[in-house]
Hints:
This protein is α/β, with parallel strands linked by helices and 343 residues long. The protein has eleven helices and 14 strands. The strands form four sheets. Strands 4-1-3-2-5 form a five-stranded mixed beta sheet, sandwiched between helices. A four-stranded parallel beta sheet has the order 6-10-9-7. The protein is globular, with a radius of gyration of 22 Å. The protein starts with 8 loop residues before the first helix and ends in a 22-residue tail after the last helix. The structure holds zinc ion (ZN) (2 copies). Residues 266, 268-269, 271, 291, 293-294 line the site of one zinc ion (ZN).
Amino acid sequence: xxxxNTLSARERAALIEEAGQERLTISFYKYAHIGNPKIFRxxxxxxxxxxxxxxxxxxxxxxxxxxxxxxxxxFEAFKEHxxxxxxxxxxxxxxxxxxxNMSFLKLKVKVRHKIVADGLNDATFDVTNKxxxxxxxxxxxxxxxxDTILVDMRNHYESEIGHFKNAIxxxxxxxxxxxxxxxxxxxxxxxxxxxxxxxTGGIRCExxxxxxxxxxxxxxxxxxxxxxxxxRQVQNKNLENKFLGKNFVFDHRRSERISDDIISNxxxxxxxxxxxxxxxxxxxxxxFIQCDECAAQMDNCCSDDCKKVNALPYEEQKKLRKGKGAxxxxxxxxxxxxxxxxx
Length: 343
Ligand SMILES: [Zn+2]
Ligand SMILES: [Zn+2]
């Protein structure tokens, strides 16, 4: 029984190229109680490997989070298999609009402690007891309701470049922090207000809504499929778009423009700008907002210090990094004292 990849990424790429196969990039997630994630993991690997499915999948006691590439000709069989698993029957599949046959080159199914890193150690809370899911149309209605409190469940660098009109955007670096801050700030309104929340693709709200219900909030709603699906529905059904600016995404594109509004500023000169970059100094790699002029003037760096380091020959840079090997792995997104115009 083969439970792991036997082909390297390069061999796989060559095979896909040769076969000229059309592949679909798909993502889905589901919170469910999985008793033995290891057995479930092996079952998925064996079945999906036979269907030539590739991707990155996390399985935990709390559910599954999957990003996949499926040969178009095997899609029906893949869907049938999903439907044969009780908690995955009719699960909502997000199919990427832009197809990329090489989006994944291996099948990796990993058992994790959680499918979303949430920092919670609360065994009494049931993540499947979630809030009411609403689509774009109902969401548009709800967020105009004076009894609604609209909360952005993402981190500061995500909501900075784009968010829904009138949303509360907590100034947080982690999901855990936003859970706490929102609970504190809204503790007076557990019964009288509608707590409506959204995130990028829905998975964070799924957990947050269950958490707030557990904490005593009576009317909890979440945007189904997040900003990504909201945008699709707005286009398909010709609804009013109430999202301003860009949606931050976690792949090489960094963001998708949703409306023409530019709601953030260049962190270096302060003029309107919503382009995220990473500092060109590899040892820094800070994520921040930089306009084209500042990029040219600063050689794509966040500070004069980084500009100096970046101008050194590569070997010199390596020497400087020695002994500080992990410095660019430190989680620092969008915050640094060198950024004058970071609000
Ligand atoms: Zn600038
Ligand atoms: Zn830098």
